[in-house]
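Dear colleague,

Following up on Tuesday's group meeting, I ran the structure prediction for the two-component complex that the binding team flagged. I've pasted the input sequences exactly as they went in, so you can double-check that nothing got truncated or mislabelled along the way. The structure tokens for the whole assembly follow below. Feel free to forward this to whoever is handling the docking comparison.

Inputs:
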Amino acid sequence: EPEVTQTPSHQVTQMGQEVILRCVPISNHLYFYWYRQILGQKVEFLVSFYNNEISEKSEIFDDQFSVERPDGSNFTLKIRSTKLEDSAMYFCASRDPAGHNYGYTFGSGTRLTVV
Amino acid sequence: EDQVTQSPEALRLQEGESSSLNCSYTVSGLRGLFWYRQDPGKGPEFLFTLYSAGEEKEKERLKATLTKKESFLHITAPKPEDSATYLCAVVSGGYNKLIFGAGTRLAVHP
């Protein structure tokens, strides 16, 4: 079964550093998402991406965050200057509207630890 | 604003002791309600999608049902390997993001 692949699985970074989280969505999917889950809290929507542009973003997704699909296969989330409160699991998801479960498939996540 | 509330927060069962998890939702025009399983440190794993009141879906020991205001995940004769957090989510907005509940942490003891 096709998978969404995320790398790295765990990243530790110093506060103020830039990080890039990488995702390879399922190849024929058209919609891409980032979600995050702070330890012990809900999974929260960050941003959706369609047709090479952001289609919707949450209030969490401020100017420190950006997303790109640089080469037609990878989908990245960049945090420019990390803060302690950015520590969380970050999940990538891709969606094919014709899929049997509304097409949503999640990756296994990147655990970001900001120290 | 679309919302999802799950109860209980945590549930401890003996192996074989059946029970139900609840998901109450408020959404303007339901386009889909999802149930996911999440193991520690892992991403959500798809279980079911329900689209309309009265719909039911089953998979092994799990059965999901849907009414106009809530969904239930029934677990029949659970085993220790069913221990996980079960997440409920609804489709929301024009680009179909998911709004998640806080989850129910299920522990099944032998």
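The interface with chain B takes residues 6, 31, 33, 35, 41-45, 48, 50, 55-56, 89, 91, 95, 97, 101-102, 104-109, 111 of chain A (CB under 8 Å).

Cheers,
M.
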